[in-house]
Amino acid sequence: MHPSCSDDPPLLLALETSCDETAAAVIDRNLAIRSSVIASQFELHERFGGVVPEIASRAHVRRIIPVIDQALKQADVELKDLSAVAVATHPGLVGSLLVGLTAAKTLCAVLDVPLVAINHIEAHLYACRMAAARDVFPAIGLVVSGGHSNLYDCRAASEHVLIGATIDDAAGEAFDKVAKILELPYPGGPSIQTAAAGGNRNAFRFPRTFLKDDRLEFSFSGLKTAVLYEVSGQPGARHSPPPMTDRRRADIAASFQEAAVDVLVAKCRQALHRYNRRTLLVGGGVAANARLRERLSEMAEQERVDLQIAPLSLCTDNAAMAGIAWELLATGRTAPLDCDVRPGLIRRK
Ligand code: KG4
Ligand code: ZN
Question: Domain 133-313, what architecture?
Fold first, then answer.
């Protein structure tokens, strides 16, 4: 059946340009993902070892229209078939967010359809709801990405109370920085995971900050520094560290990953107890980590908790997770065409 047939569920186009992925997706009102196109800018930022905001926004400008065209083509729909356009407007890099928002506003003005402003973090959590194909709220939500390590009490699809965050580096940032220290390729998360697969996770006892603390906060900067000292030696130390070998690199990667995962899993467990929730949602790029997924599954089984981790295709940045737009549309939460981006993290209490 062609999507424009009257019996078909309505369609929306979602755009995502909050960081370094230019993405577009077509999602129907039943939350079926009709297409999802992601143009990674990995090759543009690789030599800098991290995302360069100015390069990211310029690349979004060049790529946004081809990516939209491809998403429409893959879904076999035309612009006139769309009922709404959704776009991530917060949080993220200001120049990058502006490209997606400008494209979305233009489409809404021309097509005379509503604009939906998406909270990128809420969308990361909603990826779990989309994959579950059923209601998953209330729940505890963990978003672990390059920019965030946040715990939420998720009362409804779009009602998340921030209950914990990192006081320094985000989890993904720690993976990226440690990969750099170990001279592993960018982006660091997948490289650490690959290197760790051949290593001994008990070879080094790296710090697990706040593990025993009842605060729902993260800190990964001490862990990163401990890895740095193991690799380059303590400042002022009389002995230099052993030379780096593939074995040593694998052991450090595995021990670092285990320390990071220990803390993430422990804080989820604490949050589930404290807020008396029976469901755990986990999204964001670091949620792609195989060891984290394994350890979360073990914990969920012990605690008899319903664990919904975003599928790999919806962990790192994508536009399909913006299916949350249908929830916002259902309650009339559309955005005016003069709305703006909000780069900073919005704290709701
Ligand atoms: O959600 P995302 O694509 O972008 C942000 O919103 O930040 O997350 C990117 C982050 C990067 O720090 C990357 O190294 C990390 O997710 N990441 C991983 C893995 N895959 C991506 N970290 C650990 N293990 C992975 N397999
Ligand atoms: Zn993200």
Answer: 2-Layer Sandwich (3.30)
